[in-house]
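Section handout 9: paired folding examples.
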Amino acid sequence: MMRIAVMGSGGVGGYFGGRLAAAGQDVTFIARGAHLEALRQRGLRIASALGDAAVVPTRATDNPGEVGPVDLVLFTVKLYDTEAAADAIRPLIGPHTGVVIFQNGISGTEVLARILGAEHVIGGVAQIAAVIAEPGVIRHTGTMAQLIFGELGGEPSARVEALSAALDAAGVKHTVSHDIRRDIWGKMVFLSTFAGLTSLIRLPIGPIRSDPDTRALLRAGLTEASAVARTEGVGLTPDLVDRTLGQIDRLPAEMKSSMLQDLEAGRRLELAWLSGAITRMGRDIGIATPTHALITTALKLHADGRG
C-alpha cells in the first residue's frame, strides 16, 4: 500500500485519487471549504460512465502538516495556485517522495523543481473531463480517463513503477512515459487551443468542430502551438495537428473545457498559462500566433473572474 496525498481535490485529483482510494490505497485529500466538509462528513463520490465509486470514510484535511511525509503527492491545483500550493506541501515531502504534477500548461514542473527540488518532481499529463458537481461529488464526462507520467529525465524509477502498479490495481488507464516533456507539450498544443476556443466562442466542442470556419480556427491554433513547441526543441511528431484534430472529433459533442466552465461561473481563468503562454513565447521567438493572440486579448478582461 502506498501513502498518497492529493493536493487539489477537484475534478482531476478527486477522480484519480478517488479511484486509488477505492482500490485500497492510503489516500489523503487536501481540500478546502464546502468540498472539504463534504468529504469529511459524507465521503467522496464519483459519478462516471466507467463506473460510479464511493470512498466512505474519506481522509481529508486543509492542513498538509497533519499528514506528514508520503510516498507520492498527486499535484492537481490550478496553475495560478502553483507556487502557494508547492510551498504548502513541504510537510508532505520526505527524502524519496515523488510529486506527480498533473496540471495544464507547461510551467508547473519548473516551479515545483525550484521550490521543492527537481529530484522530487515527476512530470505528468491527465486526460479527463471531470468537475466537482457538488461538494463531495466528482462528475466525469465521457469515458476518457488516462494518466501519462514519468521521471523528468526519462529514467525508470521505483516510485513510478509503484504508481503504475497502484493504477493497474485501480483499473485506471495509464502510460509510463520516457519523454514526459514531449507529452506535456502535446497536451499543451491540444488544451491551449481547445480551452481557448471553447471559452472564446462560449460553446462546447461539438458545434465548433462542425462549422468549417471555427474548425479552421481549431487547426490554426493547433498549428501555432506546435510550431512554438518545435522551436523550443520539443520532438513532436509531424502529424500531431491531424492526430489532435482526430482526438477532438472523438470527444463528446457536449464537452466543455474547464476554462469555459470557470468563465461561465465567474471564476479565475488559466488563460495566462495557456493561450497567453503560447502568445508570449511566439512573440519572443518570432513565430506568429494570431489565433492564440486573439483568444488572449478577447478573454483578458475576464481572466481574474468576477471576484
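Moving on to protein 2 of 2.
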Amino acid sequence: MANPALRRRLTFLIVFGLLLLLPLAASWLGQPFYIRLFTRIMILGLAAVSLDLILGYGGMVSLGHAAFIGVGAYTVGILAYHSDNGGLFLGLIPGTDNAFIVWPAAILLGALTALIIGAISLRTEGFYFIMITLAFAQMVYFFFVSWQTYGGDDGLQLMDKSWPVASLSAMQFYYLVLVSLLLATLLITRLVGSRFGMVLRGCRQNERRMRAIGMPTYRYRLAAFAIAGALAAFAGVLSANSETFVSPATMTWLRSAELIVMVVLGGMGTVYGGIIGAAVYSLLELILGNYTVHWQIIFGPFFVLVVLFARRGFLSLVMGQSREA
C-alpha cells in the first residue's frame, strides 16, 4: 500500500474500530477494568492530541500544557463543590453540576488561560518559551495547592459526575469519551489541512520567512495555543468526571513532560499519533509497573530506541518512514 494518505486513513479506521469494539470484548470476557483503563487512555490521548497541534505542527515546546487540564478539571470540581454546599463561588457565582453549563465554561476558561499565557510566552522563542510556559504552569499549580477551600494539596473529591453524565454506565461514559476524542481529532485534522495549518507548519519551519511574506504569525500561533488549551481543558473535564476527583497533581510540569513523551512516542505532527502514544505509554506503565516501581529505568532505553529508529513515532512504523526526520 504505497499511498501514505490511504495508510493514514486505514490506521485511523483501525484505531477507532478497535476502541469501538473494546468495551464489548471486555464485557464478554468479564473484565470491566479494561473499560476504565481505556477511558483513561482516551482522555490522555485527547490531551496529547491537543498538545500535538502546537508541538508537532507549530513547533511550540510547552512544559505547561497540563495546567490547562487542571483548569478544566477544577472548573468542574469547584462548581460541583458549591452546588453541594449551596454557597457562591467568590461570593458571586452559584455552583452547578449541569454539564451543559459547566463543560462549556471549563473549555472557555481553558482557552482564556491559554490565551493569556500564550500572549506573553509567544513573544519569546526556543529555550525562553519553554521556561516561561513552565513558570506559568508552576504558578497555576501552586495557586491551587494554596487554595485550602478546595482541598489544597489533597485535592477535591466530587460527590458525583456532572448531570446528565451521572446517569451513564461505565460503558456509556466510555463511548462518550470516544465520541469526544473522535470529534476533537476530526477538528484538528480539518484545522491542520486548512490555510491555518499551512501557516502553522510554516512557522515551525521558518517563522521569520513567514513574517517576511506578510503572514501575521503571532496571531496564528496564539490562536493555535488557545485552541490547544481549550481541548486540554476538555480533557480535564472528562478526567474529573471519570475519577470524580480533582487534584493539583494533574497540572504539574511532570504531567506536561509525560504528554510530550506520548506525542513523541506516537508521532509528532500526525494528529492521532498522540492517541497511539498515550496507549503505548499507559500500557507500558501498567505492565512494567507490575514488575518494579522503578519502571522508568526500563522505559527510558525503550524511549531512546524509539527516538533513534522511529523518528516519527510508532505511527511511522505503519507508514514505513521509521528513518525519516
